[in-house]
Amino acid sequence: MTSTSPEGSATLSDARVRLLEAARQAFAEKGYAGTTTRDIASRAGMSPAAVYVHHRTKEDLLFEISRAGHIAALEVIGDADQSGSNPLERVTSMVREFSRWHAIKSRTGRIVQYEFGSLTAEHRAEIAGYRRRIEAHVREALSDGVADGSLVVDDINGTALALLSLSIDLVRWYEAGGKIAPDDVAELHAQLARKMVAR
User: Fold this and answer.
1) How far is CA 146 from CA 40, 132, 163, 165, in A?
2) pTM for this structure?
3) Which helix (H) or strand (E) holds 152?
4) Statement to judge: residues 74 and 154 lie in one domain
5) Which domain holds residue 156?
6) Which CATH number covers residue 28?
């Protein structure tokens, strides 16, 4: 049996999806601080009160978007890491796919990367855990490359952050549907990564 929302026609799960998508659009365009629950409800075609039926606070919406985005990004990094047969291939594949994901999901990426400070301390701690796991994939590949002599890296931690920043920072300027295709920016970043670390 399907429950209905206070809005009448939508199921509870449908309403949650609509609110999350509306929040994603609003946060990406106006920022978390500049978005009200009324903005979100309006975009979802629902009443402001409906937001609190499905989500306790505006921050809960942000956390759900951020958690889902980080889990997806971690999966992208993990798959890319496994696809390489040597450290250099692993590094370039991770940067390529991480950048492709941020380009394709630029709205989500903007929220995931730049609204971290708007989360509660408890939620920040969980998200920070996903970030550490993402960074660990890159650090491990760099360390393996230094160990086998295929990569030249003086600062493993700093280089890992710099490589990931290629992907993360593109959401500042990248717009889906623009002149630069996701595959093109992803390949550019992969080649830059190769030049940064290859012997």
Assistant:
1) 48, 21, 16, 21
2) 0.87
3) none
4) yes
5) 60-197
6) 1.10.10.60
